[in-house]
Design brief:
Shape: globular
Radius of gyration: 23 Å
Helix content: 25-40%
Number of helices: 14
Oligomer: single chain
Order of helices and strands: HEEEHEEHEHEHHHEEHHEHEHHHEH
Largest sheet: 5 strands, mixed
Structural class: alpha/beta
Strand order of the largest sheet: 10-9-8-11-12
Strand content: 5-15%
Length: 340
C-alpha cells in the first residue's frame, strides 16, 4: 500500500500515501470453522412424539468492547459498527464484507482496483480533514499509522468517533492488519477465510509459474513523470512476486544496501541500463511524457526489453497497493503475463 524514496521505519505506511500521491505532485501532484452445534445429534436418543423441540443454538450477540491501540489509547469499540471509516484500508474492509462510509483519495485519484466494490462510496482526502470526517458521521474510525494522528489530531478525531490506531508494526503486514481489523469488527472468521483463500491461490500460481520460467529473475518497475522506481522485495507487489510466488530478485534490488531500501527505490536511467532481469513488470503511470524514455536507446537496450519480456500495466491495476484483494489481482496479472 508505497513509498517515495523513504527508508524503512515506523513511518512506512505514511510513506505509502506519499508515493501514491507522487504522480499528482510531480504533475503540478490483511477460518474459523465453527463447531457444528448439532454434531452430537446422531447419537442423541429419539425424542418422544409429544416432546417439544429445543430451540436451535445461536451465536452470542456482539457486545461493546474496550481495546488498546498501537499508541496506548483505550478505545471503546461499538458492538456492531455500522459506519466504519478506515482510510487507505478499504481493501481490508471489502475483504471482510464491510462497506466504508468514505474511501481514501488524493486529488483526482482513488484506489482504482476497488472501483467496482466502492463505486457508490464517496471519497475523503488522505489527510482526513476534520470537517469531512464529521460530515460522514462514522461510529468507528480506524487509522493506519501513528504518524497520521500527531499534533493533537488523534484527540480531535476521537471526539467525532472512537478512533483506533492500527500502527506501523501491524500495518506493514497485510495479514496481521486484516486479522486485527477482523477482530475489531467481529469478523475474525471472515479474515481467516480471506487469508486462507489467498494463500491457496498464491501456492497454486507459484507452482504454475515455476514450471514455466524456473529461476529466471523478475523486476518490477514504476514509471511516473519520466522517473523509474524499482520495488523492494518486502512490500506491495514485491512481497507478492518475491515472497508469495517465490520469483527471483533482479540484480538492481539485491545491490541496494538493506539499510537504505525503500518500498519503491528511485533508479536512474544510467543505472537501469545495468538491469539484467529476464522479465520486467512495468507499472506505467506516464503514458505521455514517459513515452520518449520507453522509445529511447537505454530502455531498448535492456535484455528483457530486447527479448520482448516486458509486461505492462497502468496505475489502475493493484501493483502499487497491498491486501488480500490487491495481491490477488496482482497474481492474476502475473498469471496472464507468464502462463499462456
Amino acid at each position: 500500500m508505497i513509498s517515495f524514496n523513504l527508508k524503512r521505519s515506523g513511518r512506512m505506511k505514511l510513506a505509502s500515501i506519499a508515493l501514491l500521491t507522487l504522480t499528482l505532485i510531480l504533475s503540478a501532484c490483511g477460518n474459523n470453522n465453527s463447531a457444528n452445534s448439532n454434531g452430537g445429534a446422531a447419537n442423541a436418543p429419539a425424542a418422544s412424539a409429544d416432546a417439544t423441540e429445543a430451540p436451535a443454538a445461536t451465536e452470542a450477540p456482539a457486545v461493546e468492547k474496550t481495546v488498546t491501540d498501537a499508541m496506548g489509547h483505550e478505545v471503546t469499540v461499538p458492538a456492531n459498527p455500522q459506519r466504519v471509516l478506515a482510510s487507505y484500508m478499504e481493501d481490508y474492509l471489502v475483504a471482510l464484507g464491510v462497506t466504508p462510509v468514505a474511501q481514501w483519495s488524493v486529488t483526482n485519484g482513488v484506489q482504482d482496483y476497488l472501483s467496482d466494490e466502492l463505486k457508490d462510496v464517496p471519497t475523503i482526502s488522505y489527510d482526513l480533514p476534520l470537517e469531512a470526517v464529521t460530515s460522514f458521521a462514522p461510529d468507528f474510525h480506524i487509522v493506519q499509522s501513528e504518524a497520521l494522528v500527531q499534533n493533537g489530531l488523534y484527540d480531535q478525531l476521537n471526539k467525532i468517533a472512537p478512533t483506533y490506531v492500527l500502527g506501523d508494526e501491524i500495518s506493514k503486514d497485510w495479514r496481521k492488519s486484516l486479522l486485527k481489523i477482523g477482530e475489531l469488527l467481529n469478523k475474525s472468521a471472515e479474515a481467516e477465510q480471506a487469508i486462507a483463500a489467498y494463500d491457496q491461490k498464491a501456492a497454486d500460481a507459484k507452482a504454475k509459474i515455476s514450471g514455466i520460467i524456473g529461476d529466471e529473475s523478475v523486476a518490477i518497475l514504476w514509471l511516473v513523470q519520466k522517473n523509474f522506481y524499482i520495488v523492494d522485495e518486502t512490500r506491495s507487489s514485491g512481497a507478492v512476486l518475491y515472497g508469495d510466488l517465490g520469483l527471483k530478485l533482479p540484480n538492481l534490488v539485491t545491490e541496494i544496501p538493506a539499510a537504505s531500501r525503500a518500498t519503491w527505490n528511485p533508479i536512474s536511467l544510467e543505472k537501469l541500463a545495468e538491469l539484467t532481469a529476464d522479465h520486467i513488470f512495468l507499472v506505467n503511470s506516464d503514458k505521455t511524457e514517459g513515452l520518449e524514455i520507453l522509445e529511447g536507446p537505454i530502455w531498448k537496450g535492456i535484455p528483457a526489453v530486447k527479448a520482448g519480456n516486458v509486461h505492462e500495466f497502468d496505475a489502475s491495476h493493484s501493483w502499487l497497493y497491498s491486501g488480500a484483494i490487491a495481491n490477488s489481482k496482482t497474481i492474476d496479472d502475473v498469471l496472464s503475463s507468464l502462463v499462456k
